[in-house]
Amino acid sequence: MKRMLITLAGLALATGSAFGQSATAVATASNGGSATANATSQGNADSLAIAGATQGGVAISNSHARGTRNGYANSRSVATAVRGLAVSNSIADADGRFGGSAIADSESIAATFGGVALSNSDARANGTLFGHATSRSYSTALSEFGVATSNSRARSNGVLGGNATSISDAFSQTRFGRADSNVSATSDAILRGHAVANGQGVSINRFARTRADVTAIGSASRFGRSNARATMIRIRR
Q1: Which residues contact residue 145 at a Cβ distance below 8 angstroms, ignoring those fewer than 6 apart?
Q2: Total structural domains within the chain
Q3: pLDDT tens sequence across 135-170
Q4: Could you list the residue range(s) of the whole structural domain that residue 113 is in?
Q5: Cβ pair 59, 32 in contact under 8 A
């Protein structure tokens, strides 16, 4: 497992994408494994998908990035499976219009050894009328003869000079059990307002079941400031 992860990391560095417009997909399979990688990029965006499978494992990695007008999006997805199923989906969508700007950054990792790992990351940012929006979403699901699911979503909207930032981080890890994490962060800023939403969920266990559900919402207007932070950590050993 460690050898495969090191190999995939090397491939990711070797095929690093340049800022602006690129889509890279890498799929590696051996010993009866099946790997599928899909990467799409539209506009000012970079997309990377890596999948690796061995010993009958199935790995599916999907990455989609779209940056329109004055928006930039970066999406990265990695799926690795050894005698199990790993599915990773990453979406980054940024739209900056009418003097606004937006950044969307999404990362999804799913890795399993004899189990099931499902990871979904979704980052969307919209900056309008000189507003700025930043969304960062990170999702990680790791399993060893168990089931791990992780879902992360970040949404931000900056309008009329507003500045909105959303950060969502979901992490699940299990050994012979089930771990689930669901995190959502949403921020809205208007009329020079400044809003931040930061959510983090961690679910870790061994021979047990844990679940972490987190929601963070920040909203500000008329030069106001808001900062919403939510964290949940569930660990059972």
Answers
A1: 113, 114, 115, 175, 176
A2: 1
A3: 999 999 999 999 999 999 999 999 999 999 999 999
A4: 2-236
A5: no
